[in-house]
Amino acid sequence: MDLAFLPEVPALRLIVVGDRDELCPLADLQARLRESRGMSPELKVIAGADHFFGGAEDQLFRILWDFPL
């Protein structure tokens, strides 16, 4: 997945990714965030989850629910 768009997302505050995401590998995402100076969204990683968070919906819900607006 081409992550070049990330610096263009206004007010990006949270990214949730599974550590088994085949479309947006965690290492690629972390590298892009390091390269994008000035971006500092909170990164939440769900262990064992793929791109669609199958089987990890409860964890995803809890992360989103608890994130301050």
Structural features, described:
- The chain has helices at 26-35, 57-66; strands spanning 14-18, 42-46.
- The protein has 69 residues and is of the alpha+beta class.
- Strand 1, helix 1 and strand 2 (42-46) form a beta-alpha-beta unit.
In short:
The chain is α+β, with helices and mostly antiparallel strands.
What does the secondary structure layout of this molecule look like, with pairings?
Layout: E1 14-18, H1 26-35, E2 42-46, H2 57-66
User: Total number of helical segments?
Assistant: 2
Determine the mean pLDDT. Answer: 93
Classify the helix fraction into a percent range: 25-40%
> Could you state the order of secondary-structure elements as H and E?
EHEH
- Strand ordering within the main sheet: 1-2
- The share of residues in extended strands comes to 5-15%
Which overall shape is indicated by the principal axes computed on the Cα atoms? globular
The count of β-strands is 2
Q: Which structural class do you get from the secondary structure elements?
A: alpha+beta
Radius of gyration: 12 Å
Task: Outline the biggest β-sheet.
Answer: 2 strands, parallel
Low-confidence stretches: none
